[in-house]
Model the fold of this input.
Amino acid sequence: MTNINPLDALGDPTRRQLFERLRQGPCSVNELISVVPVSQPAVSQHLKVLREAQLVKVEKRGQQRIYHLNPVGLAVLRAYTESLWEDVLRAFGEEAERMVNTEDAHREAVK
Done:
């Protein structure tokens, strides 16, 4: 199994569409084929990449394969997104502090 980054896997629009459908709930390959305008073998290849990125997992039910979102890959995506917010909040705090210091300096200069 190749170690594919979940963000890289979602960089492809077709894989992103499949992922978005699976966010609504588990489904079979046949159901997923109707979501994207590509062949069944292409859908299977995209699902393979999503599995290798640990974004989806598969469960065999008789002859069917049912795909589900995988919490492991979702945790990686969540950690990345949270790190972005930490950067945004830090930058916001620094800017707010700079503005307060500028106002304080302006008030002192006016006195």
